[in-house]
Amino acid sequence: MPNGPVATASCSDLESYYPDGFPLGKLAQCPAENxxxxxxxxxxxxxxxxARSVLIPIVIGNRNAESAxxxxxxxxxxxxxxxxxxxxxxxxxxxxxxxGCKSSIERQNVHPRVLRDVPAQRLAYRLEPDITPxxxxxxxxxxxxxxxxxxxxSARRPDEALLRTVPSPDGQRVLALYGTEDxxxxxxxxDMYDADGKFLRNLIPPDLxxxxxxxxxxxxxxxxxxxxxxxxxxPSPSPTPLSESxxxxxxxxxxxxxxxxxxxxxxDTEQIYICNRDGYDLKPLxxxxxxxxxxxxxxxxxxxxxxxxxxxxxxxxxxxxxxxPAGRPRLITPDGTERLLDDQLTExxxxxxxxxxxxxxxxxxxxxxxxxxxxSPTQARLPLRDxxxxxxxxxxxxxxxxKPESKKNDNSANSPHxxxxxxxxxxxxxxxxxxxxxxxxxxxxxxxxxxxxxxxxNTFQRWHLLVLSAQAAVLK
Length: 476
Description:
Layout: H1 17-20, H2 24-27, H3 38-46, H4 51-60, H5 65-73, H6 82-108, E1 123-131, H7 147-156, E2 161-167, E3 173-179, E4 189-194, E5 199-202, E6 208-211, E7 217-218, E8 224-231, E9 271-276, E10 283-284, E11 291-298, E12 305-311, H8 312-320, E13 328-332, E14 338-340, E15 351-352, E16 358-363, E17 366-371, E18 379-383, H9 385-401, E19 431-438, E20 441-451, E21 456-470
Antiparallel strand pairs: 1-21, 2-3, 3-4, 4-5, 6-8, 7-8, 8-9, 9-10, 11-12, 12-13, 13-14, 15-16, 16-17, 17-18, 19-20, 20-21
Helix pairs in contact: 4-5, 4-6
């Protein structure tokens, strides 16, 4: 567009533009030279033929071109009229200004609507230490059993001990976990019942032995069943002494009542197995001999599992130290593809975010967040050591003040110790548990835990809250 100063309008009717717009009926009465200079008028006159097909789409975009064209057409513009030319310029300028403001607003609105859209490395956090135990946590009572199935075991299967029942999400079927006399105390088998307590079928082939009963579960949609098992150790028969004479006739073998199972791969170390909701199509989901998989959990949307696994030597070493099992977190898709999240061992069981977009794990006093539903995953490490030490010092000072007044005069050997800022308080312990009930609230529990032969030591149990949010964006 040619450059040139635009003359100031002297028509008093222009003042009515703010804020109600130009009175189009009176604009024709205003001298054209008071609106635009002659040089600009010549440019608009030469471009009048292409105004609808060129100028409007450029200013307001193709999406609104048709509506803007209809506005211009409704004015019944006549060629050679300077006032109508000024109307075109005014409308186009106004539309360009409005569109520019809208684009500016859209560019600045960079905050995502939900935390699911925020990568793990772009999350901000705030720690609120020593809160009351979260009320929204769901604690499953593993001792609860379906009454009808318990009655069936009491009446028909007195030699087998029912350990746990796991109903399907729709409540139509139930898994019965039970121990047998010829199996180790840590091993069990699984049968399927209907909701009324009617036996349906056996799920476990005779050469498999299930372990970790707390991990047996249905997928959230109820289409899959998962458990952890290893190769069953069969007792070796003792040789028959030569002094004993063999019977004259061999016994007639009795018909087997066990179902015929298709061949299923088995391993010396614990692996995760999967089958369909009917108990068929059983196969190992993991097949890494030498690794012990001891925990897994489905994503709420069924797209993957998070699991913990460690080497057999690492498991044995921690067991001798009376420590909790520790494994490396990993994601496993339903087709068996694995993605190792971290090479460091963790005691705390990893958890899913409610929207299935992320996984949280804990390493000593750090919390790690991993993207779990994207092709370009990121991760973040939240260091909480210094904050938790400061919180532990405050916690012990408050605990000391709550002691009875009579104990304040005790000697120093019996009086509560007041920690100094330079020492590590006894209440400062690693993170042992995570709970993620809502996208912006991640609860962490710290405690001292040791698994002694006769009892479990679990002291200084304290809950803390991590409040998550999106980092502030830098607008450019």
